[in-house]
Design a protein that fits this description.
A: about 325 residues, alpha/beta, 13 strands, about 35% helix, globular, B: 10 helices, about 40% helix
Chain lengths: ~325, ~260
């Protein structure tokens, strides 16, 4: 009887004696036998990837690339990305919002863009405009119906992300906000690797809810960022507290049984950006494609969001100065 | 795989498409509810990046044992429940699993092929959000073992429902029967004044079930007492059996057993 512990270093790509993805021997060496990536390696073209040069050219015009991550699903990444993009645009900046959640693209709906189509011009795919200074790209615009399921494996998802980075005519942007699906897999690894030679990712905002069940996944996400050298702008605790519309008392729906996101941020040594409470009107604004922050400027959630937004813009400005 | 799955009477996938709607929570509650009724249950967590089953089942930190018959899943301390997932194979719970598709597919296949479940009345398979590598791996591995079907979980909001519709499309394309739809986080009763607020809207999942002619298995409200049990890995049926959420889950199980029969 043997304790079957997966030594993570053994399973992290590449395998022992791996000849390297880019070499002539990739997929063909004896060490490749049994590696699940073998077929991809042996059939993929070798040498430096020309697409990375195209990506670098496009990203030259983008001042700040900000990832919105979580690890845990359903904590409000897309909601936050949409509101963050609106806030940047409202402050006068030129913003692009890129939705790389290929299986569950929520961004078109949240910005009132369901049913919009994409157009190609001589300079590339045109992102869909919400405002003069806010444009959006998502696989949602490529589907015939919102019921269409995108049942793609990793490699095809990666290809689409590459296309979003190299073929979309974003133009000059102050901010490119990239909304991601939950997890630490293909989409995240690909973004990091495709943007490596294009100035890298300027920062990641990590969203969580107060419960330990979310924090568990978020710690992994923070460690992912550390491993991939992605600077963490900070953690936002979403769905933190609910104010009853009738009696106005606050209750904790998602109990922070282990101290919530603030304690976790301290433990993981990353900045804590703030707490945003639950407001049923946020769900409605998302479903209707409206800007919650613009429509309800005096609500508690909007006030907290604005504090978080201030911290993000300050952090991004300061990081640039340091660099 | 066929040999192993022949010893399992019912194989049920728990899917959603949208993250954070309560797939894993529901999978763990259904597992506990079935065990309470004297069934032998296994639960397989195929979410490799964000596994929750170990925590929800109160067996965090335990490891599976490799035997000549395969990986022996972890036993629940109280109920007749066996659990399997990447949690039980890892030493460091905070280490991110930074794997691409093919490696994930390989491990999910191994979970199905190499886990020594023994005889089970039910095997519940929890999935990550989406319609990608892990889901294809589960469906393709179980092709000959013919799963009984999938339970779809949704919150009432349209944004969640859009993604659930995609999951529906996935099931239809893969030939998986949909046993029913559950509407989770359906309403929250303020502990002070009992006023019910529909934070994530109301009724959307039931309407979707009707629209597609699918059984509607029930609505589960946001229940902090039940949530607190989940946080601690305790059995909600043991700790707070009369709470609204627990009662709602029991009703869902009744309906599910009815659909299966």
């Amino acid at each position: 009887i043997v304790l079957a512990l997966l030594d993570m270093s053994r399973f992290e790509p590449p395998p022992k004696d791996c000849p390297g993805f880019e070499t002539e021997q990739a997929g063909k060496a004896s060490a490749c036998a049994g590696c699940p990536n073998q077929t991809i390696c042996s059939t993929a073209p070798k040498g430096p990837d020309p697409d990375l040069v195209d990506i670098a050219a496009r990203m030259e015009l983008v001042k700040n690339k900000i990832l919105v991550l979580s690890g845990k699903g359903g904590v409000g990444k897309s909601t936050f990305s949409a509101q963050l993009s609106h806030a940047f645009a409202h402050s006068g900046a030129y913003v692009g919002l890129m939705d790389v959640d290929i299986c569950g693209p929520s961004i078109p709906r949240m910005l009132g863009l369901e049913g919009e189509e994409l157009f190609q011009s001589g300079s590339g795919w045109q992102p869909v405009s919400v405002l003069d200074n806010l444009s959006v790209m998502s696989i949602g615009f490529l589907l015939n119906s919102t019921d269409d399921a995108v049942i793609w494996r990793g490699p095809k998802k990666n290809q689409l992300i590459k296309t979003f980075l190299k073929d979309v005519d974003w133009g000059e942007l102050d901010y490119l906000v990239i909304d991601t699906p939950p997890g630490t897999s293909d989409e995240h690894l690909s973004l990091a690797s495709y943007l490596k030679d294009a100035g890298g990712i300027d920062g990641a905002v990590i969203i969580t809810s107060p419960q330990e069940i979310s924090l568990m996944d978020v710690r992994k996400e923070i460690n992912f960022c550390k491993k991939m050298n992605i600077p963490v702008i900070g953690v936002v605790e979403n769905m933190a507290g609910f104010v009853c519309p009738k009696c106005k008392k606050e209750s904790q729906i998602f109990t922070p049984s282990t101290g919530g996101a603030e304690k976790m941020s301290q433990d993981m040594q990353v900045p804590f950006l703030g707490r945003i409470p639950l407001d049923p009107l946020i769900a409605r604004a998302c479903d209707e494609g409206k800007s919650y922050v613009a429509d309800y400027p005096d609500s508690e959630a909007t006030k907290q969001f604005k504090l978080v937004f201030e911290k993000i813009t300050t952090s991004v400005r300061e990081n640039k100065r340091v660099v | 795989i066929t040999t192993r799955m022949n010893a399992v009477k019912r194989k049920i996938l728990i899917m959603a498409g949208k993250g954070g709607v309560g797939k894993s929570s529901l999978a763990s509650l259904l597992t506990l509810a079935l065990a309470e009724r004297g069934k032998k249950v296994g639960v397989l967590d195929t979410d490799l990046c964000g596994p929750s089953m170990a925590k929800l089942m109160g067996v965090s930190g335990m490891h599976v044992v490799n035997t000549q018959y395969g990986w022996k899943p972890v036993r629940h301390p109280v109920h007749d429940i066996s659990s399997m997932g990447i949690d039980f194979l890892m030493d460091h719970p905070d280490a991110p699993v930074m794997w691409r598709g093919p490696r994930k597919t390989q491990l999910v296949r191994r979970f199905i092929k190499d886990t020594f479940w023994g005889r089970l009345d039910f095997l519940l398979i929890d999935t990550p959000p989406g319609t990608s590598d892990e889901h294809l791996a589960v469906v393709q591995s179980l092709k000959d073992a013919r799963p009984d079907g999938a339970v779809l979980v949704a919150t009432p909001q349209d944004v969640a429902l859009t993604t659930v519709r995609k999951e529906l499309t996935f099931c239809q394309r893969m030939g998986i029967k949909i046993l029913g739809v559950v509407e989770n986080m359906s309403g929250y009763a303020c502990p002070c004044c009992d006023e019910i607020t529909y934070i994530f809207r109301q009724g959307g999942a039931e309407a979707l079930a009707q629209e597609h002619g699918l059984p509607f298995l029930g609505r589960i409200p946001i229940d902090p007492a039940m949530g607190a049990c989940a946080e601690k890995g305790q059995c909600a049926f043991c700790e707070c059996p009369s709470s609204v959420g627990v009662k709602a889950v029991s009703d869902v199980v009744d309906k599910l057993l009815h659909v299966l029969s």
